[in-house]
Amino acid sequence: MKNLNNGSIKLAIQKNGRLTESTLGLLKSAGLEFENYKKQLFSSCWNFPLNIVYLRDDDIPDYVASGAVDLGIVGENIIIEQRNDVTMQLKLGFGYCSLCLAVPKESPITSSSELNNKKIATSYPQSTKRYLNEKGIEGEIVKINGSVEIAPSLAMADAVIDLVSSGSTLALNDLRVIEKIFDSQAVLIKSNTVSKVKNNIVKKLLIRISGVLAAQNYKYVMMNAPESILKTIQKIVPGLKSPTVSSLSTKGWISIQTVIKEDVFWETIEKLKEVGATGILVLPVEKLIL
Ligand code: PRP
Ligand code: ZN
Description:
The chain is of the alpha/beta class. It folds into three domains: 9-95 and 185-215, Periplasmic binding protein-like II (D-Maltodextrin-Binding Protein, domain 2, 3-Layer(aba) Sandwich); 97-184, D-Maltodextrin-Binding Protein, domain 2, CATH 3.40.190; 218-284, 2-Layer Sandwich (Alpha-Beta Plaits). The chain is built from eight helices and 15 strands. The strands form three sheets. It has a six-stranded mixed beta sheet, with helices on both faces. The protein has a five-stranded mixed beta sheet with strand order 8-7-9-6-10. Strands 13-14-12-15 form a four-stranded antiparallel beta sheet. The mean pLDDT is 94. The structure holds 1-O-pyrophosphono-5-O-phosphono-alpha-D-ribofuranose (PRP) and zinc ion. Zinc ion binds next to loops.
């Protein structure tokens, strides 16, 4: 058996599921190199002191809380359900989903207030209990570990509380959402028992991952413009600090390089065109270290 206690830090990720592919993609974008086979229990990075451990997502928070692994990537939904003693470090911007209350399409139930004395199937009993308590509803919780959406058609429940991402699982099972309980996305969690030495490695990994996440929010933009409108352009694109300006061979013209935030990208480009910028070239940012 390989020894994983070799001074490297350990990161637990979902073995096989909704988050697996995006998680591996994020780690690769952060420059981590490792082999990953479907049947493997862990991978060692060869260019960073990190072991990646593949676990069932529901087990990840416990492994992190106990210190068996230093970090974990998991849906917020599981942390909200289990309330483990871990620290949330980063929201990762993928694995978006919501915990929802749903009923069969033909059900007369239209709101949670009609759930008194009804059976609710869920793999999220704690979140369901808190939700019912908040609403002052006396429902019966039927705990099911998987395929919750099948429970109403087997007459095991009147409603379900389950994760909805694309909504296709619900649609396939003739269920409709009547209320949303909370939103969730993938997060990076850290153990509260990480040693000082390992914490230094953790910090380095967090800088790498944050760099990838920050880059996703920006586009690198190059454009040509008459020198006379430089001040106007600077107002439109404040950039991170200030844009890079160089002169062009055509007299009175300059080339400007800067970054634009993704969420205001199109309105910014429109404004730039309006004031007279031309030849606007947009490139993705691979990493951004702030
Ligand atoms: C959730 C949920 C549904 C599915 C919904 O399971 O239990 O089965 O995702 O996704 P959709 O709206 O895109 O169809 P999850 O992937 O978390 O698996 P797990 O409960 O087995 O961990
Ligand atoms: Zn799961």
